[in-house]
Amino acid sequence: MARVAIAILLVVLFAAGCGQPGHGAETDSEKGSDVEILNAALGRELTVLAAYTQGMPRIGPRFALSARRLRAQEQEYVSAIAKAIRGVGGRATGTASEIDTGELHNQKDVLTLAYELESAALAADVEAAPRLFTEAPRTLAASLAAGHAQHLVVLRRGLGTPLAEAFPKPFGTGEIPPPGGETPRRKE
After folding, report:
1. pLDDT at 30
2. Nearest to 131 by CA among 56, 69, 50, 38
């Protein structure tokens, strides 16, 4: 009896997963909306990834390991978002914004730009999470927001903020400007 119940459950689960792969977002407006939101997030993450990648030569040896770890996590975020987009039947079309590396002269410039981009990503992910219809992308957006908040603490430290002041504000949404100085401008 238990084997029959398990077999029926497996058939039901398998059948629920069947259908036309890759077309959910084309035929389901909620999944289509999720794909739009996720592609916007993908573009932001690709921009942050590009900032770390292009700025790496300007990072000093004391912060290089941290910068490489931040870059690696951004690559993981890009992969996770692309997977989430495919998971709801969409295509990953997000693209990075252009970064003017001519304005990145030293580590402070790179970290300040990264701080700005991470802050924007945090704010967008906090805003996106409740607007997503599908559970997995909603959970991903919340996880991305948490990751960006952690990155901001590391960047604050890299920008010279004392440890006691590097902690995020309660319920931070990415709107706190970077410590000291102007943020380099990037092309939109």
Report:
1. 87
2. 38
Asked if 52 and 114 touch (Cβ cutoff 8 Å), the reply is yes
Contact 134, 88 (CB under 8 A): yes
DSSP-derived letter for residue 183 is P
Domains of the chain in sequence order: 23-166 (1.20.1260.10)
How many Å is the Cα radius of gyration of the chain?
20
Tokens of 158: 């890299």
**CB–CB of 81/141 below 8 Å?**
no
Look at residue 167 and give its three-state secondary structure: coil
Predicted model pTM: 0.80
pLDDT given at position 115: 96
Alpha helix ranges (H) inside the chain: 2-17, 24-27, 29-55, 61-87, 107-128, 135-158, 163-166
CA 97/CA 42 separation, integer angstroms:
11
CB 142 within 8 A of CB 91: no
For residues 24 and 151, what is the distance between their CA atoms, to the nearest angstrom?
33
pLDDT higher than threshold 60 for residue 184: no
